[in-house]
Amino acid sequence: MLTEQTIDKLQAMNLHGMAEALDRQRSDGKHASLSFEERMGLLVDHEWTQREQRKLDRRLKQAKLRHDAALEDVDYTPGRGLDRQVVLSLGSCSWIAEHQNVIVSGSTGTGKSYLACALAERACRKGYTAQYTRMPRLLQELMVARGDGSYSRLLTRLAKLDLLVIDDWLLSPLKETERRDLLELVEDRAERGSTLLAGQLPVKSWHEVIGEAMVADAILDRLVHRSHRIALKGPSQRESRSAIKAAEKSK
What we know:
Elements: H1 2-12, H2 16-27, H3 36-63, H4 84-90, H5 94-97, E1 101-105, H6 112-125, E2 130-134, H7 135-148, H8 151-160, E3 163-167, H9 176-189, E4 194-199, H10 206-210, H11 213-224, E5 227-231, H12 237-250
Parallel strand pairs: 1-4, 1-5, 2-3, 3-4
Helix pairs in contact: 1-2, 2-3, 3-6, 7-8, 8-9, 9-11
């Protein structure tokens, strides 16, 4: 009866992990030989593990990743332009701690989005906040925010992210308001957070697509400075996967 009351109190205090572990200890005779300190340590460990898992689940939900990706599953097939040591180094997330950026470029289907999501997933596991977005959608959200009065709040929220992933970077030439919005965002995040950009264009082509030399210079200076660059090569990964599936079906 005393144990039941203790479990109820733990649940009432939102110590659900400890309550679950205590209930497990009660029904598992192997814990009877442990000391009080050892059993208490197991309860605390279980509570801590559950809380950390809930935090991770919240970070991953907030990140809204396009792919269920992980660095452990990245394809290092020769010819892709991927250096395993470089990717593993980025997996330490020290670049996020130092507010550096990552630029992933390559043709359509080379795996830019997957790699970007894998790095963001690792960041979430390391305790950092992250969010994935496509550039067309980001620019649309900024435009709408200008109209409904939430512009400052949106910029503030984006500025607080440890990592912002912008996929489909510079798909098309920017309009005047889009350039200004992008500059505001980049300026707010400069040396305060990390940005991962994934797109088809090499850095040397950005200036022309952004347009307006002074604004383009300001944006590039804040993004390209202190950035890590990965240029993916090779055939489309989508075509390769489709070919494999077709071959499997024909067997």
